[in-house]
Design brief:
Number of domains: 1
Mean pLDDT: 95
Order of helices and strands: HHHHEHEEHHEHHHEHEEEHEHEHEH
Largest sheet: 7 strands, parallel
Structural class: alpha/beta
Radius of gyration: 19 Å
Number of helices: 15
Oligomer: single chain
Distance between the termini: 39 Å
């Protein structure tokens, strides 16, 4: 593992491991994104999303942009959950106004039979970006690496793009479950390798985005999503350089299965805005840290509402005690969000949470 400067702010890592912290750490899903004018300038200079993501210097530049504006407690690698299936040969493209699309989606048994765990050399640009970001951070805050869950990646691989009804992947699930299980197993093995390489390159915490787990029925969520999330977690190297590498699992729409998600082997569970934090703590008995869960649309409510809603989330979590809380949104920040609204949120969370922790 490369040698990096010592970490100056480890509040995020301590909170994820339910250790004592002076305030509630804060980072935002999609914090390096289109709401920032400097991001849009970098993307225009790169020419495309993929050109930016596959260039370690540009990925580093974008990753660090929100930290130059706000006193956040973590950087998150700028990349995309679909880099892994792209390395499998599915042909990822980001078309203007349409989002991600695969030119060769999985639509038949023959397509699935050809699928294999990719050579990680195809993803070298990601690991190079991780190492570069760690060096450039100079120990300021930890770096979070991430991947999509096997189920969520499979949704894109079969649908070929985002979907409103998931009829193609669900059709495969109901008609040919063995085919989908093969896809999920390959995805899980690839994700283990991918995340381990990220932490080896310098990522100090890892996050698994199960963005579409909530579209599954009860019973099918456990079989087709949670089982493969657990497979990933079982394969991860959880300690690097004498320190635990905490893992966060975020299932959008997964509130009904909170106890099961918390028991899958993760250190922290990310929650969307539909879940009450106080109830979540009771349901998980403080066995894991909790991350979240402000509605991203609260950032459009104006300064008084932003401050009020930030306090509500912190109050909902309640006394820190043996629990760990990482403040975040309940999903990614909207591209239409004002950077000034984010500044208000960061200011309120930092000040109010420090008072709750007894820090003047």
């Amino acid at each position: 593992m490369p040698s990096f400067p010592p970490l100056k702010n480890d509040v995020l890592l301590r909170a994820l491991l339910r250790e004592s912290v002076p305030y509630t750490p804060l980072w935002l899903m999609r914090q390096a994104g289109r709401y920032l004018p400097e991001y849009n300038q970098t993307r225009a200079r790169a020419g495309s999303f993929m050109a930016m993501a596959q260039n370690p210097e540009l990925a580093c530049e974008v990753t660090l942009q929100p930290l130059l504006r706000y006193p956040l407690d973590a950087a998150i690698l700028f990349s995309d959950i679909l880099t892994v299936p792209h390395a499998m040969g599915l042909g990822l493209q980001f078309l203007p106004g349409e989002g991600p699309r695969f030119s060769s989606p999985l639509r038949s048994a023959a397509d699935v039979a050809r699928l294999a765990v990719p050579d990680m050399a195809e993803l070298r640009y990601v690991f190079d970006a991780v190492a570069l970001i760690r060096r450039e951070l100079d120990g300021k805050v930890p770096l979070i690496g991430f991947a999509g869950s096997p189920w969520t990646i499979a949704c894109y691989m079969v649908e070929g793009q985002g979907s409103d009804d998931y009829r193609l992947v669900k059709g495969m699930m109901y008609s040919s479950p063995q085919l989908l299980h093969r896809v999920l197993d390959i995805n899980a093995r690839a994700t283990v390798e991918y995340l381990n390489r990220q932490s080896e390159a310098g990522a100090q915490a890892l996050m698994l985005f199960d963005s579409w787990g909530g579209v599954l029925a009860d019973g099918l969520f456990q079989e087709f999503s949670l089982a493969y999330t657990r497979q990933v977690l079982e394969g991860l190297v959880r300690e690097r350089d004498g320190r635990r590498v905490p893992v966060i699992v975020f299932t959008k729409g997964g509130g009904a299965w909170l106890e099961q998600i918390a028991a899958c082997g993760c250190d922290a569970v990310g929650l969307d805005w539909t879940v009450n934090l106080a109830q979540a703590r009771r349901r998980t008995a403080d066995r894991v840290a909790l991350q979240g869960n402000l509605d991203p649309m609260a950032l459009f409510g104006g300064e008084p509402a932003i401050r009020q809603q930030a306090r509500r989330v912190l109050d909902d979590f309640g006394p820190v005690g043996a629990g760990g809380h990482v403040f975040n949104l309940g999903h990614g920040i909207s591209r239409h969000t004002s950077p000034e609204a984010v500044a208000t949120l960061v200011d309120e969370v930092r000040g109010y949470s420090a008072a709750l922790h007894g820090v003047a």
